[in-house]
């Protein structure tokens, strides 16, 4: 007897054939999806290959760039903000102060050059007046004044004299090295710091507006910023022509908040003298703009501008955040704001200078100087951007600009 078989109906097919018949779309999609996967893998491989080629090219370009070692020397030009020696020890005789270098402790006051040298792993640059030996590790030309007295509009002459001394020093280094190529390398490894303007504005703000304008009728109070910024920018160009490739230019702090200016401006409420600060902001802005114009003209050089005004205003606006209690009164002096008479002896100093923003008539305390230096050195600090376009740490140790 024949085995039983299911009854056949019209259109009946075996189960397997029926499954294929019922899913024709799926049957067609399988090879299409496989092709898509293969195309995706090929695209991924091309992308990886492109990244590897780019990395290899970047490494080759980096290898072809001239390497730059950490800073080998620190040369400083400036006014009393960078020097305790020479004629800068009494730069403001009209205000009866012994200058910014008198400190209540036995330790020598550390100014910007000392703080920066420590961060660079270099010894403090010796003042040019006390230099005894080679200048290969740096020199502090700051405080060297011109012979024409302390006129407001004579800062450019002091800068010119210090630039001449710097040029002569670099020439002596060439003779010491005896190898022009080695000498060029040592000069390019040096960092030059320029800090001008604070003394000039202190003298300017010590006078009444009419007296300051009368001292220079062609320029007036606002003309100082234009003249000084242009002279500093020209000094940077002169250094570049002498093969200097690393330069930091320091701006002027907010002297409108300094005790002497607040006392002279009648700031009985303890607020900063806005007109004075506007003058200084104008100078800083013009100086930053002039340096920005110069950068494309000086290939291979790094020129940094450090806005210490911004850093100090952060402290003055938020004193408690940084451990300060007194933002208007000087630590050392007499009278309202301790600014009628400046700091003439150590005995006049307060007991806790670390709680004061200002040391004397115009000078910040060591704690403030340390904070601003730290913010200038590294962008990892909360106050990123005091220096631009790079930090001083990058200037001292980073790769050269392309």
UniProtKB/TrEMBL annotation:
Keywords from the named record: Hydrolase, Lipid degradation, Lipid metabolism
Pfam families the UniProt entry points to: Lipase_GDSL
GO molecular function, one term: hydrolase activity
Entry annotated with the keyword Ribosomal protein: no
Region span, Disordered: 1-21
InterPro entries: GDSL, GDSL_Est/Lipase, SGNH_hydro_sf
Gene Ontology biological-process annotations: lipid catabolic process
Keyword Heme: no
Coiled coil stretches, renumbered: none
Family label: Belongs to the 'GDSL' lipolytic enzyme family.
Protein name: GDSL esterase/lipase
């Amino acid at each position: 007897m024949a085995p039983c078989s299911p009854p056949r109906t019209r259109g009946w097919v075996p189960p397997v054939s029926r499954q294929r018949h019922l899913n024709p779309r799926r049957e067609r999609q399988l090879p299409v999806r496989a092709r898509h996967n293969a195309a995706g893998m090929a695209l991924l491989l091309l992308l990886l290959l492109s990244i590897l080629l780019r990395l290899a090219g970047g490494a080759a370009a980096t290898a072809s760039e001239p390497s730059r070692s950490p800073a080998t020397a620190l040369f400083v030009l400036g006014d009393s903000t960078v020097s305790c020696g020479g004629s800068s020890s009494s730069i403001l005789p009209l205000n009866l102060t012994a200058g910014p270098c008198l400190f209540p402790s036995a330790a020598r006051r550390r100014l910007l050059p000392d703080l920066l040298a420590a961060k660079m792993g270099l010894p403090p640059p010796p003042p040019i007046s006390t230099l005894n030996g080679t200048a290969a590790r740096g020199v502090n030309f700051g405080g060297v004044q011109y012979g024409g007295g302390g006129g407001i509009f004579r800062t450019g002459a002091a800068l010119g004299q210090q630039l001449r001394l710097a040029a002569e020093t670099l020439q002596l280094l060439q003779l010491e090295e005896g190898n022009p190529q080695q000498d060029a390398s040592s000069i390019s490894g040096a960092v030059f710091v320029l800090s001008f303007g604070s003394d000039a504005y202190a003298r300017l703000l010590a006078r009444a507006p009419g007296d300051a304008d009368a001292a220079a009728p062609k320029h007036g109070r606002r003309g100082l910023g234009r003249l000084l910024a242009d002279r500093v920018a020209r000094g940077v160009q002169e250094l570049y022509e002498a093969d200097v490739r690393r330069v930091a230019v320091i701006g002027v702090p907010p002297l409108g908040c300094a005790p002497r200016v607040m006392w002279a401006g009648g700031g009985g409420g303890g607020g900063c003298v806005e007109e004075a600060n506007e003058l200084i902001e104008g100078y800083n802005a013009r100086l930053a703009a002039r340096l920005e114009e110069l950068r494309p003209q000086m290939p291979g050089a790094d020129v940094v501008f450090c806005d210490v005004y911004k850093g100090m205003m952060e402290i003055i606006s938020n004193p408690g955040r940084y451990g300060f209690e007194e933002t208007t009164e000087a630590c050392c002096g007499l009278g309202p704001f301790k600014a009628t008479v400046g700091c003439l002896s150590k005995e006049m100093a307060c007991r806790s200078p670390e709680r004061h923003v200002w040391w004397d008539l115009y000078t910040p305390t060591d704690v403030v100087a340390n904070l601003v230096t730290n913010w200038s050195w590294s962008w990892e600090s909360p106050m990123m951007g005091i220096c631009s376009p790079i930090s001083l740490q990058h200037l001292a140790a980073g790769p050269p600009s392309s």
